[in-house]
Predict the structure.
Amino acid sequence: MKTKVLMVSPECAPFSKVGGLADMVSSLSKSLAASGCDVRVFTPLYSSIKRDASFKMSVGTLSVHMGMGIEEFSSVWEAELGKAKVYFVEFNRYFDRPGIYNYGGVSYDDNGGRFSFMSRAALDFCEAIGWIPDVIHCHDWATGFVPVYLNTLFRNRPLGRAASVFTIHNMQHQGIFDEGLLRYAGLDGSSVFRPDNCESLGSVNMMKGAIYNSTKITTVSPTYAREIQTPEGGCGLDGVLRFNAADLIGIINGVDLEEWNPETDPNIAANYGISDMSGKGACKADLQRELGLEVDPGVPIFGAVSRLYDQKGLDLLAEIAQALVDNMKIQIAILGNGDPSLEARLSGLAESNPGRIAARIGFHPKLSHKMEAGLDFFLMPSRFEPCGLNQMYSMIYGTLPIVRRTGGLADTVDQYQEGTGKGDGFVFDDPTASALYNTIGWACSTWYDRPGEIAALRRNGMSKDFSWKKSAKMYYQVYEWASDARKFAF
Ligand code: ADP
Ligand code: GLC
């Protein structure tokens, strides 16, 4: 019989996306469905999602049972995602607004209610259509109440037999709210508002509740699985994770190669591959033109596509960008959005260095593909990085990653060994502007002095296997462990 997997997620590409979580949920679902699992994703119908003719109504009226006797009426739509299915819960009071978690840099203050609703709706929906998954795979804090519901309100119902797997994509966001949220969510405070469960420093912590209640916990790289068990990486939950360490597994994300492949990518100026790289030059010229940089094949472009927040360390780049273009013959290109002050700093640098620094503020998926293809070096000076997808996209596109040795970056990029042409990127340790400056300097001298080695590094990265094959198999294994463990719990 097919293994039935329900993914619950606040984002799912290409329908809704803030960052890599959306890509991961979508590509893992497609990969598992292609290998024979019955995979269905449950996610909100945000107003940004365009319902084309391929969408159909799945359930016209779904009543979602919140606490205090509140019954919310919603509808559920469905669409295909490869061989997987996506269900979208439509509930305008919560999801008909701009942005997913925030707008203009400010989080919506009813996020606790919005995502408790999504979590409860996922379970009420399964019961409404009579589909009982073997495993419910939850992603990040927004889905944190799903495992809590399964162990409490649903425990004695058929759905309560489903195992839960909770994937931590980012410890920095935990979903911390007022205790009152439990009443709206319909959860009994006397059983769950405890320091070993959902309570943390007097508030409700959705991620902590998920860690306590899930059958298995995963995170998106082996190194991050270790880092989050330390006080530096655990964001206050390292103790809880150490306590649950036996159930915590780090699995590196794969890449959706239908979406990210320079041989077939329709978003880029020319397709190319490892055996014929000539198209990459056309992509570089196209990017230079589009961003207003001087069109010059000889000058290396260093760039990034990123959320502009503390995690990503691009403030370090802002600090040294002027010195970089003054002292080295290079160009810099940034696509990103987030922290308004960093957006302004980067735009200012671009204005005062026309032709040499470009900054596009905003979220532009097509341009992100053009950047992967047109850049020579991709910068990820992250302070922490659970997995990171862009360094893998870069290697696939023959663009060399320059990364800090942390989380998934440490697990996926192999350090360049000067003089041998071994490795596939440039790795540094200290989260400082000077370490970043020196590493860019090293890459720049390699570009001008050892072009043969640049070509070798590109080939090395392009030959790596970033497909989902291995990691999807590991998730399948985790689902089996979780199902067995759940059976023993009854
Ligand atoms: P994170 O999830 O922490 O943001 P990842 O590297 O896992 O980091 O994934 C980021 C994803 O979001 C990539 O697919 C990247 O291309 C995309 N992305 C980030 N910022 C932008 C942007 N401004 N425009 C388009 N795509 C973006
Ligand atoms: C998070 C992390 C990122 C990871 C992504 C997908 O947003 O910040 O490192 O790649 O999730 O798992």
The pocket of alpha-D-glucopyranose (ligand 2) is lined by residues 19-21, 24, 169-170, 220, 253, 385-389, 408 (CB under 6 Å).
